[in-house]
Amino acid sequence: MEFTLLFLATAIVMLVAWRGQRPLALGLFAAVLIACIATYLHHATDTLKLSF
Amino acid sequence: MTQARAITLNALSLYAVALVLAAAYAAQFILQELPCPLCLLQRILFAALAVGPILNIRFGPRPSHYAMSLLAAVAGAVVSTRQVLLHILPGDAGYGSALLGFHYYTWALLGFITAIVLVAAILLFDRQFEEDKAVLPATGGAFAQTAVWLVIALTAVNVVTTLLECGFGACADNPRIYELLQHAA
Predict the structure, then answer these.
(1) Size of interface A-B (CB pairs under 8 A)
(2) Where do the structural domains in chain A lie, given as residue ranges?
(3) What are the domain boundaries of chain B?
(4) Could you please report the per-residue DSSP string of chain B?
């Protein structure tokens, strides 16, 4: 579900960037990027099977 | 580089993002390979790469717009590097099929690194940031407008297909079916 919302948010940021106000687009973009990083950290919990 | 030429390059970069999103769909629908959570996140970050060029076309090139693309590309490179490392041990077949010897997440890593290098290269040209009154309709002309709407449309279609794949719950680690279609059947 979170990925659907992230795609939706990205599409909204694109529309705001194209039709809306620049500061709003910048703010929404920052929010989406932070949400992407949070989603990544949530999913990247498996231990990497590496040995150096 | 003039402002007009920079805007043309930004439009071309949007077509490149559209090509990446379309290629991902080709793998999904022709090869019947559903994207995993990390794959979806890489797609989202490819789409996020497009916000900077859209702003450049609408408001004119600014360093801050390029910085947005750089941040999205770095985040995408981190995610795809993670997926490469998950499958790096000898004997691991990787996730999904390979294209020209590389899996899609490896291609994604190369794509994000290429984006970082290209954005850094285009930032070297200062003249694009000067006011260029000789040119341009405010929205960059038909070529640029088509690029913008194409990439927005592909992102919007991804909203629908991701909803079909994952449904209203958490997305499966190794998805085999479209959850929402399965429930409907």
Answers:
(1) 99
(2) 2-40
(3) 3-184
(4) --HHHHHHHHHHHHHHHHHHHHHHHHHHHHS--PPPHHHHHHHHHHHHHTHHHHHHHHH---HHHHHHHHHHHHHHHHHHHHHHHHT-STT---SS-EETTEEHHHHHHHHHHHHHHHHHHHTT-GGGGS--TT---TT-HHHHHHHHHHHHHHHHHHHHHHHHHHTTSPPPSS--S-HHHHHH-
